[in-house]
Specification:
The protein is an alpha/beta fold. It has one domain: Class I glutamine amidotransferase (GATase) domain (Rossmann fold, 3-Layer(aba) Sandwich). It has 5 helices and 12 strands. The protein has a 7-stranded mixed beta sheet. A 3-stranded mixed beta sheet has the order 5-6-9. The protein has a two-stranded antiparallel ribbon with strand order 7-8. Strand 10 and strand 11 form a beta hairpin. The radius of gyration is 16 Å and the shape is globular. It starts with a strand and ends in a 13-residue tail after the last helix. The chain binds glutamine. Glutamine binds next to helix 4.
């Protein structure tokens, strides 16, 4: 199985290293042709405006939209989660290109600026025990979810629920950076999506 990692900018090498440790092959995606034959795709963290503009320059926006719409397994981490979202607030003036597909609203810099970056332990029942370390770097959060979206993890200790990991069919989104830890469980979880996807990328109906 081969997982593409969008390699325009950001933490794509770290994702590739994690995937290889799990026995998957990886492919750096910079052009539309690189999407052919992939079993899944990760959009990494970095800077979503820059990534969106580079995707426009490389003619990747429409192919990425088609990829996500086809129902194939796709995971966005941090800036990648912003790109995967249907709606973003706190965007640069004039907006930014989004790929969309995930029926959520994200707040781009929910936790503030670079110096407000932090690490914490998260509980996610899909990963089991123990709680997992999560690195938040100028991180977004999900402020609204549509009906088909399942919340996988929220941050404890806030007045209202701060959603930081969700799933919608074959789409996974995390506001933090699992590729910057040593824990393979999020990547392992994402690879389980592949086992339930047929050649056309359709999810077996029995899946969550
Ligand atoms: N908040 C950043 C953005 O808007 C994302 C930061 C990250 O990916 N670490 O792109």
């Amino acid at each position: 199985m081969t997982i593409g990692v969008l390699a325009l900018q950001g933490a794509f090498l770290e994702h590739e290293a994690m995937l290889r440790r799990l026995g998957a092959q990886t492919m750096q995606v910079r052009k539309p042709a690189h999407l052919a034959g992939l079993d899944g795709l990760i959009m990494p963290g970095g800077e979503s405006t820059t990534m969106g503009l580079l995707a426009e320059q490389w003619g990747l926006v429409a192919p990425l939209k088609a990829w996500v719409r086809s129902g194939r397994p796709t995971w966005g981490t941090c800036a990648g989660m912003i790109l995967l979202s249907n709606r973003a607030v706190g965007q640069k003036v004039g907006g930014q290109p989004l790929i969309g597909g995930l029926d959520v609203t994200v707040n781009r810099n929910y936790f503030g600026r670079q110096r407000d970056s932090f690490e914490t332990l998260l509980t996610a029942s899909v990963l089991g025990e123990p709680p997992i370390r999560a690195v938040f770097i100028r991180a977004p959060a999900i402020v609204e979810t549509g009906p088909g979206v399942t919340v996988l993890a929220s941050l404890p200790g806030y007045d209202k629920e701060v959603i930081v990991a969700v799933r919608q069919g074959n789409l996974l989104a995390t506001a933090f950076h699992p590729e910057l830890t040593d824990d393979l469980r999020w990547h392992q979880y994402f690879l389980t999506f592949l086992q339930h996807t047929d050649d056309q990328g359709h999810r077996a109906s029995a899946m969550v």
